[in-house]
Amino acid sequence: MNLTRAIARLETYNRGLLRSEKTVRFYNQRLGVLVRHLGDRPLETIDKDEIRSFLADLGGRCSPETVRGTAVVVRRLFSWAASEGMIKSDPLEHLRLPRPPVPDRPALTEGELRLLLDKGFSSRPTGRRFRAMFLLAVDTGLRVSELCALQAGDVDHDGIVRVRSGKGKKDRVTIAGQAALAAVAEVCASAGNLWTGSGQPISATAFRRALSRAGNRLAIKVHPHKLRRTFATLMLSNRADLFALQELMGHADISTTRRYVPRDVDRLRSVHRQAGPGDWLASRDNHL
Fold it and tell me: Using one digit for the tens of pLDDT, what is the confidence trace for 231-247?
């Protein structure tokens, strides 16, 4: 079976698993790059060395995140094809994936958060709505798609926020504080989408643009995922449990949550000063 036909069948399989449209598009895009590099050849003629060469070539043109994402998708194609009997064995079974980069992407500071809340949004109904969305995102760590899709009744007076069909089509619950609840209560609809009152969710693009305008006004770089990162960073700096944070953020794997742990040398030095075994042993010796 040739590459393009296998890719089409994998797309059908992914849709059958109810994977998100974004995931399906990413698979097709990255596998399309593979076809352009290797040509539309039979799967069984492609070996591990060719895939390594393809990834190395990609590494000269793309970010480490893109290379790793492509490698994951390509390896998934071949493992799936082997499980379906399209090829006798998976030639990429022992292919080592590129290490994920450790991004140095700062969260918003407390000062930036206060500026954005106080001066970033207009007092008109639309501005108040985007301000409420901003505060709820920072307070809950919701993904932008989850935030925009909230329905009336998904946020209750006790602070329970119900996320329906989040990433991976999974439902979960997260928590909002009183300040965010009060801001939402001022602008939320009583039926339909929480933000629009209709059957259609508010556009994620509209929210991104509102954040961009607010940030440009105050010379602050801000986008939806930075709000999620800010939530995680502030929760951890306030000594939140990593496993509780994993549940609140809807991560399937704790290693994903660990990426949000800030690389703060001063904080690490302070922790080590309090708990480092070397100094503790030395102090014990001095008292003997």
Answer: 988 888 887 888 888 88
